[in-house]
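Dear all,

This email documents one entry for the complex benchmark we are building for the journal club exercise. For each entry we list the sequence lines for every component of the assembly. Then comes the predicted three-dimensional structure of the complex as a token string, followed by one or two observations. Please use this as the template for your own entries, and keep the labels exactly as they appear.
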Amino acid sequence: MIEYPRLTADLVVLTIRDDRLKVLLVVRGRQPFKGRLALPGGFLEHGESLEETAARELFEETGLDADRLHLKPTGIYSDPERDPRSRVITVSYLAIAPNLEMPSPGDEILSTDWYEVDDDLYMNLAFDHARILEDALEQARALLEQTSIGTTFCKEPFTISELRRVYEIIMDIQWNQGNFQNKVLGIEGFLEYSGEKGSKGPGRPGKLYRAGPVRKLNGLMKRPKTAGTLVEG
Amino acid sequence: MIEYPRLTADLVVLTIRDDRLKVLLVVRGRQPFKGRLALPGGFLEHGESLEETAARELFEETGLDADRLHLKPTGIYSDPERDPRSRVITVSYLAIAPNLEMPSPGDEILSTDWYEVDDDLYMNLAFDHARILEDALEQARALLEQTSIGTTFCKEPFTISELRRVYEIIMDIQWNQGNFQNKVLGIEGFLEYSGEKGSKGPGRPGKLYRAGPVRKLNGLMKRPKTAGTLVEG
DNA sequence: AAAATAGTGTCTATAAGACACTATTAA
DNA sequence: TTAATAGTGTCTTATAGACACTATTTT
């Protein structure tokens, strides 16, 4: 009798809330790892592609609609010992969202929320989800420099300062305001002016932009070599 | 009765032979797609990780030893219809090799060889292997600019001109000889001088180098913006 | 000697980054 | 009117790339 491995899809959904990079997690309501934090995800069902599995599980476990997100496969984890029950192979998907509503827990889930990514969090994740999260974050940081993925953290339309804040938080550095502005406006097709202005605080309101058609940034938006550390707050 | 998908690992093994980018393929000896070209690969067996599957299948089908290669997972293909027999999900691995010996076909394989990558080849591949190959090639080209993967195409020790030829063939452009030399020698930890010189043709023999410890090139080695087209031959 | 490739350096155009100054809003 | 942020431009420095010249080998 051959032991067929079962397949799951897990999601690393990132967003920025309260000026911090956060990841969507659930508290498991079932064994194994009952009561522990985990990435949302679950088993492949008949006739589904794995991306469909990911979208379905996201909705079932957290109530979030994957149609608004772009799912990008980031890794596969096939260590025979990674699940204590039986052989389970998982595929991880990365998704990035603007600051969304609070998720609501589905069946078999005790709670779900956005969690700040820090060392403490890594210690508390079920299965090998710390490893999966770490790999996905590394990819997200690489994509930030190479693609226009940064704009997907912002609710459209957004100001250049909101976009700059995204880069500052994820790269953990401080960008020069004027240079950042010149830089992104100099990349043709990166941003599209919406024709409006907007303000979410004191000071002169900035022009509001949408993401342009360009996806590959070809290494523009790399972190400045002489980057200062991010000033907290 | 739930239909469990079965899992395979497929390999995209690239090399440069006869001044051309080539990929390792097999001619299938079994249905489906008997007599057709395909990527080497096969089913996961009990207790294996998928990377172990890839290494084992590579050896069984082509006689090549994966210990000398670095396998990098590049994609997952889970379309329910991708295999005409039954549900099969495959994970693709990219490996890059210096010009190796000829492979020798294993059981269930009619023949195996290195094939030049061109449009004609894509038309003749079994399953969705054209898509898998295409994705892997795109990744390999990206890795060439961002990492030191280019050196793995060269048998150590190698001259800078041999390395330049790799970049020229894969990027399909011509590099200025002097500038390329200055550039790679200027990247600390990229190349290590072996202390020797070598010649494989007329002209002054070049110094022989090995790959240095640096893996991430952080966007150095990008194609020159003003690149001329590669002169054939 | 001629042909071929390796190695080195210089010059120029471009881009990255520091920084200052002006503009426009809220308080 | 002051504080805060947006927008623009200038200057400096670093880097990319063109190109030329020297060096070392085979034929």
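Observations: Residues 129-146 of chain B form the longest helix (18 residues). Chain B has a mean pLDDT of 93.
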